[in-house]
Design goal:
Length: about 120
């Protein structure tokens, strides 16, 4: 595999506070075999890569392969909650604007500025 992919896998392991020894235990592969693949001595199989992606969990497979995007997948639950909060805040602001527009009309009438 291309060296940059291997560098990203090793960076992801480091970011997850893990290492090749722990990874090999978790995915059921001999440590020496995995180590040779992570160093680029042997080609990494699709099965090994898939196991690594599963082990890393919230690390983006796209980022591992291409380097594009963020290392960590965004949690959709957090995004949905943030969107819900923003919608509620927007609704609240719309109500305030409507109330202020009403007050503005009233003031304009009192000042004789409204037709």
């Amino acid at each position: 595999m291309e060296e940059s992919v291997l560098q990203r896998i090793n960076a992801a392991l480091k970011a997850k506070k893990s290492n090749p020894t722990r990874l090999s235990t978790e995915i059921g592969m001999q440590q020496s075999t995995l180590s040779r693949q992570l160093k680029g001595v042997n080609n990494m199989t699709l099965e090994t890569f898939s196991s690594i992606v599963a082990f890393l969990g919230d690390v983006s497979a796209e980022w591992l392969l291409t380097g594009k995007g963020k290392m960590l997948k965004e949690d959709k639950t957090d995004q949905e909650e943030e969107l819900k909060q923003l919608r509620a805040e927007n609704l609240n602001l719309e109500k305030k604007i409507s109330k202020l527009e009403g007050k503005n009309e009233l003031l304009q009438e009192q000042l004789g500025m409204k037709k």
